[in-house]
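step 4 of 6: structure.
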Amino acid sequence: DFDDDGRKIYIVYMGSKLEDPDSAHLHHRAMLEEVVGSHFPPESLIYIYKRSFNGFAVKLTEEEAQKIATKEGVVSVFPSEKNQLH
Amino acid sequence: TTRSWDFLGFPSNVARMNKVESNIIVGVFDTGIWSDHPSFSDKGYGPPPAKWKGICQTAANFTCNKKIIGARVYRSNKTLPPGDIRSPIDTDGHGTHTASTVAGGLMTKASMNGLGLGTARGGVPSARIAVYKVCWSDECADADVLAAFDDAIADGVDIISLSVGGKLPKPYFQHTISIGAFHALKRGILTSNSAGNSGPDPYTTASLSPWLLSVAASTIDRKFVTQVQLGNKNNFQGISVNAFDDLKNQYPLIYGGDVPNKGFNSSSSRFCKENSVNPSLVKGKILVCDAQLSSKKFASMGSPAGVLMQAYRDYAVSYPLPASTLKLEDGSKLKSYMSSTKTPTATIFKSTTIQDASAPFVASFSSRGPNAITHDILKPDVSAPGAEILAAWPLNAPITVAQDSRRLLYNIISGTSMACPHVTAIATYIKTFNPTWSPAAIKSALMTTASPMNPSINDDAEFAYGSGQVNPLKAVKPGLVYDANESDYIEFLCGQGYTTAMLRYITGDNSTCTSSGLVWDLNYPSFALSVTRSQRFINQHFTRTLTNVEKGGSTYKATVSSPQGLLISVNPSTLSFKATGDKKPFALTVQGTVRQPIISGSLTWSDGRHSVRSPIIVYVRS
């Protein structure tokens, strides 16, 4: 599941949806630039969850994921794993 | 479904709120849907309900209609596996099967090449379907499942059916299905989720949060069997779904152990392990294997006329060739026959059905409790038919494996995936009669009216079947419900170690953990208590509140079934309700000595018309 640069998809779950959901991407981007740096590639952001709750799915290294987990507003950070049909 | 709904006592002519039902939107998170299937005809449907805010991602060979009103596709992984199409179209079959079980129309004379003939139907045939394709041939990724929840809740679905899950238990807010289902319940949307197919070992279900409706798979009384006749005219009744016509002749029998492939010896070829048998030596013969094989393993065998396997099986599977699984005793007799003659032969007939008087019991594959995250919440919640279920199948997907060239409109498959949509449909049916009920109230109705199942044929008792087998007609009029809302779950989460700060993010309000949020006080429709090996004497209080959901007043009396060694008391033991919505609290106390690994009892509230039953389980935690 890792890319060549050691990144894989993590889910950053941030709870209930924002009052202004359209601003979600600004919040998420600011957080990512703080952790990953301004060189953060936009294509690494896989999903922005904003219609019903707040969060995003993004490609990160394990270290970056750990850093994001300490940020205010973050409930949990965990790797996107495979589920199976039952 | 040609038998399962009738087996549940839910005939096709059941009273329905047709207009309300056609206004209900079921969100199906799965492999997509084959919209051309006649089960999804939109004849007679009006436009989508006004509340619908979703979209239809049209693609080549896929369009929505007035039955399938929405479809979206989720794929976080950039690359697509070969054969998959970035479209809501179902190229697997699973999503078409589950969607038709929930809400497919009535299809008379449905069968799998004659097998399981009858009327295939969804439990709520007038409901609309919104498709969220989250599964592909390689994965159903968490990121995609969560994206589907984000959309489905906002799109306006009324209920979510999710026959998908992970293998390992996860904390509630690191588990995408729990996260999504939590936000769904905040909007009044219940999520029905399959318990998993990792049974029969304990602690195998990963569908664990109390706001999820977790579904185990049970059998129905129609069982597929496949007759095998030897050259000496001896017959054996094997287990499989063999939709191939009778083999016309007797074919030579060949034992896998006698035909090892190059690089293998008989110790692996006897089990017909992948590539272990010599394909040229089995061609045109019936191959005998000392094991049960999956369809995928058949590809390396070449082209035998048929395959006979040996194992104990409690459910039948179909294969890309004529095949049957014999029980071990019959397997021994078969091999004795093979060694007694120089030219042993056999033939395999098309499957037939027999009545299984032992049904329902929980299938061996169905994942079991206890709950690995919160020991004192019983999981799974309920059982429903999930073995040998006939439902719709796409004509663009093979019915077993890619090498299987048969294309059929119906397929018979097994799994908790098949059980889940039965429960989704019944939950939807309940909602059509009781549109204002919360997800917890619907869940309670399903659990407290479930038919008790037999622990003597289900060793794991409630950890296999939960409250029992769902009973649709009783569930629609449960009398009383154990209701719960977001704040009740938040209080429960406080007791699970979640901080006020964390819970405020989740709720978006100023929730505060003011009480200890004891798990035994969550208004759950079942009672579970775990003890450690050293803890033998118990004295545990549970508190609950019942809400009257019938018109007018009624007085309910409690009856307790106390297993040996335990004293279970209820206070008060009589509850008088004056009107609809009236709420009455009570306490249940379990005292005594734990002498067995699992002890089951029950509490039933009855007013003479309704019976509101909850299992009580005390167990030793391992």
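step 5 of 6: annotate
 - Chain A has a mean pLDDT of 93.
 - The helical segments of chain A are 24-36, 62-69.
step 6 of 6: archive
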